[in-house]
Design a protein that fits this description.
7 strands; binds adenosine-5'-triphosphate; 7-stranded mixed β-sheet; globular; P-loop_NTPase; alpha/beta; DNA_Partitioning_ATPase; AAA_dom; 41% helix; Rossmann fold; single chain; Sporulation initiation inhibitor protein Soj; 12 helices
Length: 256
C-alpha cells in the first residue's frame, strides 16, 4: 500500500515542485512504483516532466469534479515506474466550485484511497497557499514533507505549515504525521545557508532530513527541457542529492 506524501509549504518558490518531480523520479529510478499528483493550478510538475498542454486530455480537476475516471486522467509511465495526474489552471476555481460539496476537504482522499494499493508512493505537489487544495492534500496524506529554502524567512513559513498540519490532524486526518523537513537551495559559499540550517535545527524539535539539496543550476534548467534531473544530468550534484533523499525517504518508511 502506498505511503501518501504531501509536499507543502505555504511560502512560494521554496522548491516544492522541484522536490516533487525529482524525488518522484528518483524513487521510481530505485524501482518504486510512484504516482505524482500535480495539485497546483500552475501545473509546473506536469510541464516539468515534459507534458505539453496538448498532451493533457484530462486533469486532476476533471477527476475531482467527477467528469472522468482515474484511468482517464492518469498518464501512465511518463517515466519508467512513474505515473502522473496532471493539473492545469482549471484547478484554480476549486475554492469556489467545491463550496457546495459535502466533505469538500476529503475529495482527493476518496479517489486516492481507491488506488492506494497500486503504488509504493503517492506524492502530492501542493500550491503555495493555504486553500481547499492544500487542505485536500493534507487530508489525503499519510505524511507531510516540507521543503524549506535556505534563506532568512525560512522559519516563518515553517511555523505556518506546522500549525496547518496540527489543525488538519485534529479536525480531519488524525493519522497525519510530519514526514520531515528538507533544506533546499543550499549554497555552501554563503554563511547565510549555514546559519539558516543551524537556526532551524536548534528551533525545530522535529524530523529533519540529513540530505540537504544544494543550489544547482542543472536543477533549475531541467524543467525547461521537460526532464527530471536524473534524466537531464544524471551525474549532477542535484541528481545525486535527490537520490540520497529518495534513499532516506525509503528507509524512513521502515520507522513510520
Ligand atoms: N536546488 C535548486 N537549485 C537551483 N534552483 C532551484 C533549486 N530548487 C528550485 N530551484 C528553482 O527555484 C525556483 C522555485 O522552485 P520551485 O518551482 O520548485 O518552487 P515551488 O515552491 O514549487 O514554487 P511555487 O510556490 O511557485 O509552487 C524554480 O525556478 C526552480 O527551478
Amino acid at each position: 500500500m502506498a505511503r501518501i506524501i504531501a509536499i507543502t509549504n505555504q511560502k512560494g518558490g521554496v522548491g516544492k515542485t522541484t522536490t516533487a518531480i525529482n524525488l518522484s523520479a528518483c524513487l521510481a529510478e530505485a524501482g518504486q512504483h510512484v504516482l505524482l499528483v500535480d495539485f497546483d493550478p500552475q501545473g509546473n510538475a506536469s510541464s516539468g516532466l515534459g507534458l505539453e498542454r496538448e498532451d493533457i486530455e484530462n486533469t486532476v480537476y476533471d477527476l475531482l469534479t467527477e467528469e472522468v475516471t482515474f484511468e482517464e486522467c492518469r498518464i501512465a509511465e511518463i517515466q519508467k515506474n512513474l505515473d502522473i495526474l496532471p493539473s492545469d489552471m482549471n484547478l484554480a476555481g476549486a475554492e469556489i466550485e467545491f463550496q457546495e460539496i459535502e466533505d469538500k476537504e476529503k475529495l482527493l482522499r476518496s479517489y486516492l484511497e481507491k488506488i492506494k494499493d497500486d503504488y509504493d508512493f503517492i506524492l502530492i505537489d501542493c500550491p503555495p497557499s493555504l486553500n481547499i487544495l492544500t487542505i485536500n492534500a493534507l487530508t489525503a496524506a499519510d505524511t507531510v514533507l516540507v521543503p524549506i529554502q535556505c534563506e532568512y524567512y525560512a522559519l516563518e513559513g515553517l511555523g505556518q505549515v506546522l500549525k496547518t498540519v496540527d489543525l488538519v490532524k485534529r479536525k480531519l486526518n488524525p493519522g497525519l504525521e510530519l514526514e520531515g523537513v528538507v533544506f533546499t537551495m543550499y549554497d555552501a559559499r554563503t554563511n547565510l545557508s549555514l546559519e539558516v540550517v543551524e537556526n532551524v535545527k536548534s528551533n525545530l524539535n522535529r524530523t529533519i532530513y540529513k540530505t540537504i539539496i544544494p543550489r544547482n543550476v542543472r536543477l533549475a534548467e531541467a524543467p525547461s527541457h521537460g526532464m527530471s534531473i536524473n534524466q537531464y544530468d544524471t551525474r549532477s550534484t542535484g541528481a545525486e542529492s535527490y537520490r540520497m533523499l529518495a534513499a532516506e525517504v525509503m528507509s524512513r518508511g521502515e520507522d513510520l
